[in-house]
User: What shape does this take?
Amino acid sequence: MIEKVKILETKILSDNWYILKKITYEFFKKDGSRLVQDREAYDRGNGATILLYNSKNQTVILTKQFRLPTFINGNESGMLIEACAGLLDKDNPEECIRRETEEETGYKIKAIKKVFQAYMSPGSVTEILYFFIAEYDSEMKVNEGGGLEAEQENIEVLEIDFKKAIQMIENGEIMDAKTIMLIQYLQLQNLVNL
Assistant: This one.
């Protein structure tokens, strides 16, 4: 247990893409002793993610795009298969994910359901991610998706059989945590019959 956490100093290390801060803080341990620590925290804002699924056809909609951090960590192509996602900016999570879904996948979804929220890397990143699911059908397709040119997005839209998506997790083709969590949520809730 720690008590009485107090921020002593905050320094901005980078404000280039998002904000990287070095924070010095103190707290008191259970035995009453004081401890001072320095940590870095990356503030990129909060986000939302969604998994579109079709229970009749037993398919899901995923995206594929280049992710530099995966490339520099050994992913030869840097391409990552993942659920649609985006930063909230000034929107609430539901408004954000509706916008991102249409921009990235080309689907204008109707009913969405929030299923949970989670910190994705709480040791160094401040982001809370809001998780959603929504059923889709071909009539909801309003454009080709692919992201916004202004945001330099180059997104491929994938419609994948749900059984195959599970196999892709098992064989390492899907390595994105948010995507794995949402696919497993659908599986646990029996929303797509196997």
